[in-house]
Amino acid sequence: ARLLRASMLDVAGQRHVTWARLRGLNDKQTERRHILRNASLPMITAVGMHIGELIGGTMIIENIFAWPGVGRYAVSAIFNRDYPVIQCFTLMM
């Protein structure tokens, strides 16, 4: 929430937002079309980085509790030297 708020405040002060307001768009349209669309880019980056952490945590949990899944498949691929699977898992993380 902090990242999105800081990004929205940063984008709200830019020229294209001022021009949109001068053009006569109301606040909701300006917020939706110009501010939120440009402010969501850092959020997408942060979410992408957290997905790698979640997959890494899944890998640990699946090995501790012996649950079948993607993490366990990746660990068995590492032990069996299955390079295409390792590359795919690394790309996902």
Q: What does this protein look like?
A:
This protein is mostly helical and 93 residues long. It has one domain (2-92). The chain is 85% helix and 0% strand. It is built from five helices and no strands. The protein has helices at 2-12, 15-23, 27-65, 70-79, 83-92. α1 packs antiparallel against α3, α2 (15-23) crosses α3 (27-65) and α3 (27-65) crosses α4. The radius of gyration is 21 Å and the shape is rod-shaped. 6% of the residues are buried. The model has no long low-confidence stretch (mean pLDDT 87).
Gap between N and C termini, in Å?
24 Å
The gross shape turns out to be: rod-shaped
Rg estimate, integer Å: 21 Å
- Helix and strand string, N-terminal first? HHHHH
Number of helices: 5
Which sheet architecture does the biggest sheet show? Answer: none
What count of structural domains? Answer: 1
Q: What's the number of extended β-strand segments?
A: 0
Mean pLDDT, as a whole number? 87
